[in-house]
Design goal:
Blueprint lengths: L4 H11 L1 E5 L4 H13 L4 E5 L5 H15 L4 E5 L4 H10 L3 E3 L5 H10 L3 E2 L1 E2 L2 H9 L4 E4 L2 H12 L7 E5 L6 H10 L3 E4 L6 H6 L2 H21 L2
Parallel strand pairs: 1-2, 1-9, 2-3, 3-4, 4-5, 6-7, 7-8, 8-9
Length: 224
C-alpha cells in the first residue's frame, strides 16, 4: 500500500512519539506492536538490528494489514541502498538511518517515501536538507542535549526535528526536548524495557505508552 509522504510526516509530528524496537522473536515483535497500537500509537519504527529483521518485519506488516491498517511502519538503521531497496520492497512506509546516506535518500525519493536521516552537526543537517529531507533525526540525543536543538533551531526554521537517544519517559526530560524545539521524540528501551520484554508484560507497555503520550500532549498544550 502506497502511503502519502505528507501524511507520514504529519503523523510523526502529530503523534510526537515514535517508538522504536527490535527483537529476534517474531511473537514478541507482534505483541509489542499490538501493545503500542492499543495505546493509540499509529506510527512505529522497527529497527534493522538483528538476524531476523526481514522475517519479523514481514510478520509485523502482515499483522498490521489484517488488524491495524492505519498503523504506519518505518524501518530504522538502514545504512545503504541495498537495504533501502529491500525494506521498501517489503513494504516499509518510511526509512530511518543513524546518519545521512545519499544512496538511501535516492532510493526513498524514487519510492516516494520519507527518509529520516540521523544528523549530529549543522553541516550534516544542511547536507540532508539540501538533498530534500524535511524531518531530521538528531542522534545521539544524550550527546547533543536540548541546548544543541535550541542553538540550531533558528538556522532550520522549516525543518522538523525528532530526537532519539537520551530521551527518558519522565515529564522533566520530555519537556526539555519539546521546549528546545523538537517536533517528536523517539523512544526505544526506555519505553519498551528489557523487563517488559522478559516478563512479556505487554499491558504495562500499553500503560507506559499512554502515560508518555499524555505527558507529550500536556507539554504541547503549554505551547512552547
Amino acid at each position: 500500500m502506497m502511503r502519502d509522504k505528507k501524511v507520514i510526516y504529519n503523523r510523526i509530528k502529530s503523534e510526537g512519539l515514535l517508538p522504536l524496537f527490535y527483537h529476534d522473536d517474531t511473537e514478541v515483535c507482534i505483541a509489542v506492536t499490538n501493545a503500542l497500537f492499543k495505546a493509540d500509537i499509529s506510527i512505529i519504527e522497527f529497527t534493522n538490528r538483528g538476524k531476523n529483521a526481514i522475517k519479523n518485519l514481514q510478520a509485523i506488516i502482515k499483522e498490521r494489514d489484517s488488524s491495524m491498517p492505519e498503523l504506519l511502519i518505518g524501518v530504522g538503521t538502514v545504512i545503504n541502498a541495498d537495504e533501502a531497496r529491500l525494506f521498501i520492497e517489503l513494504g516499509a512506509d518510511f526509512l530511518v538511518s543513524p546518519f545521512f546516506d545519499e544512496t538511501v535518500n535516492t532510493a526513498a525519493v524514487k519510492a516516494k517515501i520519507p527518509y529520516l536521516p540521523g544528523c549530529m552537526t549543522p553541516r550534516e543537517i544542511y547536507l540532508a536538507v539540501a538533498a530534500g529531507c524535511t524531518t531530521i533525526k538528531l542522534f545521539p540525543g544524550n550527546v547533543l542535549g536540548p541546548g544543541f536543538v535550541e542553538a540550531i533551531r533558528p538556522l532550520f526554521n522549516d525543518i522538523d526535528f525528532i530526537v532519539t537517544g537520551g530521551v527518558e519517559t519522565n515529564q522533566e526530560n520530555i519537556t526539555s526536548w519539546f521546549k528546545s524545539g523538537v517536533s517528536a521524540v523517539g523512544l526505544g528501551s526506555k519505553l519498551i524495557t528489557k523487563n517488559i520484554l522478559t516478563n512479556k508484560d505487554y499491558n504495562s507497555l500499553t500503560e507506559r505508552a499512554i502515560s508518555v503520550k499524555t505527558v507529550i500532549n500536556q507539554i504541547r498544550d503549554i505551547n512552547y
